[in-house]
Design a protein that fits this description.
The chain is an alpha/beta fold. 31% of the residues lie in helices and 24% in strands. Strands 1, 2, 3, 8, 9, 10, 11, 20 and 21 form a nine-stranded mixed beta sheet that branches. Strands 5, 6, 13, 14, 15, 16, 17 and 18 form an eight-stranded mixed beta sheet that branches.
Length: 451
């Protein structure tokens, strides 16, 4: 039996996970003078999907002090282009046209580099970072603090104590899975298969950095331009469709590209430079986000279908709220510590509300007729501009945005029975045969190659 070594004096905060949520919380708390210890099971840099930031992350990026590095290393995006499967209908979402001004752009980020940047930033600000270390047990209490048992790469176990625990373990959802808190979203049981390519066609000028969404009847593609000429390309479809296709995930991705005119046009000269990755049944939320002695952050609290690129921003924004709330709760000169669960009720309400905002529009996206209005939006009364504001990442939209969003959702309901716009013709992912002359992007020899 391995010997368990006790760690040093308790930290103020222990964090599970070093992704965007964990690193953001660690950086902010350490900057505020708190002793922070963070455990990340992998060693960075490491591959991760979810490469698109949203404009309303700008203030937090500046607060973290990483804007200059992002400008120097990553691809700037000003909007998103949605294209029907046959390429006949295309609409551009320009973030500058949002109802709330001041947030016109964001970044497409190579996550291996971006996550490493955030984690190093936390270390530079004083957080104690342990990489390649897995948390195997964790208990938390507002009265007695938290205790974690961790295992390093050599198999050695050690115990660590802290006054409070933040779970930023991503889709592993360390605490939620053990406490039975996670609830899958039944109508969003999707699957994704994705890879990195070189040679994918890009738009000209500043639009070269914008995300491309190709919309099919039963699926959609993302194309995210990354630095160094790479493009992240993924296909999202029903999980049952992926399993029932009879194709390996990579073959399904390539065949779907072949059969979709709009995707095929942009990828006719592309070459795959990574392996394939898959994710399935990934939309869920936890029934409890703030517990006795702990908070759930980012994907550890909820994960929403990635169609509107909300994942990283939800992770980082929840981390900022958690860090600020926890810093105040830990007390300071002239202010007593108060870590009781009631202190974090407002944090829980905000996270749940933010998740609800985006789950609603993502759910609407998959309903019949949504694309008829979304690809042919009305500019009357600022409805289009209010939708852009939400998609730009405004987590707490003002009333001027909310009533227009309500009007948009009302229009969607009416459209189901009384069409307000002509139907946009969309092909199914495996519906139209691709011409023999249009070859799929050349694949690498090894199916298991990793970037």
């Amino acid at each position: 039996m391995l010997e368990i070594r006790a760690a040093e004096a308790p930290a103020d905060v222990a964090i599970i996970g070093g992704g965007p949520a964990g690193s953001t919380a660690a950086a902010l708390l350490a900057s505020a003078g708190r002793r922070v210890v963070l455990f990340e099971k992998e060693k960075f840099p490491r591959f991760h999907i979810g490469e698109s930031l949203l404009p309303f992350s700008t203030d937090l990026v500046r607060r973290l002090g990483i804007e200059t590095k992002l400008q120097a290393e990553q691809v700037k995006k000003w909007g998103a282009r949605l294209i029907s499967s046959d390429g006949a209908v295309t609409r551009y979402i320009c973030f500058e046209e949002g109802l709330v001004p001041g947030y016109p752009s964001a970044y497409q980020v190579l996550r291996s580099r971006f996550d490493e940047m955030l984690l190093q930033n936390a270390a530079d600000r004083g957080a104690e970072i342990h990489q390649g270390v897995s948390v195997v047990e964790a208990t938390a209490s507002s009265r007695s603090g938290c205790e974690l048992t961790v295992r390093d790469a050599a198999g050695n176990l050690s115990r660590h104590r802290a006054r409070f625990l933040l779970d930023a373990s991503g889709r592993d959802a360390f605490l939620a899975s053990r406490k039975g808190l996670r609830r899958m979203t039944p109508h969003l049981r999707k699957a994704a298969v994705f890879a990195h390519y070189e040679g994918v066609a890009r738009d000209e000028g500043r639009a070269a950095g914008d995300i491309i969404l190709v919309i099919l009847k039963d699926a959609w593609f993302w194309m995210i331009p990354l630095a160094g000429g790479r493009t992240s390309v993924g296909l999202v479809l029903e999980g049952a469709a992926l399993k029932g296709s009879g194709l390996a995930p990579g073959d399904l991705l390539e065949e779907s590209i072949r059969r979709c005119p709009a995707a095929r046009m942009r990828m006719s000269g592309a070459r795959r430079v990574s392996g394939y990755w898959t994710a399935s049944d990934y939309s869920y939320r936890c029934r409890e986000v703030a517990g006795d002695g702990y908070l759930l952050l980012g994907d550890a609290a909820a994960f929403i279908d990635p169609v509107f690129s909300t994942g990283v921003w939800l992770a980082m924004s929840s981390a900022e709220m958690a860090a600020d709330t926890l810093h105040a709760a830990l007390g300071s000169k002239g202010r007593k510590e108060n870590l009781s669960p009631s202190v974090f009720a407002a944090y829980e309400r905000k996270v749940i509300r933010h998740v609800r905002h985006y789950t609603r529009i993502v759910s609407a996206f998959y309903r019949p007729g949504f694309m008829d209005l979304f690809l042919q939006p009305s500019t009357r009364l600022g409805v289009k501009e209010s939708v852009i504001t939400l998609l730009a990442g405004h987590m707490q939209p003002p009333f001027s945005v909310r009533w227009r969003l309500a009007l948009f959702y009302l229009g969607l309901r009416i459209h189901r029975f009384f069409p307000l716009r002509p139907a946009v013709p969309l092909l199914g992912a495996m519906e139209a045969p691709g011409p023999e002359a249009a070859r799929a992007p050349a694949a690498l020899n090894s199916e298991d190659l990793r970037a």
